[in-house]
Amino acid sequence: MNLNRNNPPLISPANLAEKVAGHKEVLLMMDYDGTLVSIMPRPDLARPDKELLKILEQLCRLPKYTLAVLSGRRPEELRELLPVPGLYLGGVHGAVIISPDGDFIPLQARTGVEKIITTLCKLADECIKNQPGFLIENKRYALAIHYRLAGFEPAEKVLESFIKESKRLRRQFDLELLKGKEILEVRPKGLHKGNAVSWLKKNLPQAFFVFLGDDTTDEDAFKCIENGLGVLVSEHLRPSNASLRLKSPLEVQKFLELLA
Hints:
By secondary structure, the chain is α/β, with parallel strands linked by helices. It is 35% helix and 22% strand.
């Protein structure tokens, strides 16, 4: 675990695979957007290709590997995108996990939060005022405003307005803001991927732990990695709690292919 945020050094997919493959039991956890697949202008365009699905299926069939994908997306959406037997799927930053048997396991799903998230979605819509380039995503336990296709000035004004207008509700219901790659999220405080990582680790205490992620939402997961590796997926150097870095989702796929 890397307790001091620094710029994690670059490693090749081959060298990373060598570090991981030597262990008898491996819990391999990954983000989805920006890690398994490239970030696209719209979330619905970011889909895995057949080769990636084949590699994941091969890894899940190997007894030494347990695979989990932990994402900000809804768990039902992840299940549709990744129909891979044996895969754990953690949706909305680990609020709910779908087990390989298909069971829905609520880890951090706060009662009553769905209603306030719906209210905030309506508020976000009022702030956007039908301007193009924005997408509001209701994730039941969290809200996301995507603005990748909006211009800089419209996005700045909309986000400033939403942050101001949502302040009272966020304080009242103990919600926090989180900025990612051209996305603004509202989620309950304490809802993050680190809790899902901890839950998975408890189920496989003897395993070597690996987490790969690319965004600010993955930093909580990196903090929870012990007896293992946190791998940042980024073309550029940046401070992170990860200990190593791959350049891109293409390198992540190569790493997985070498393990399979």
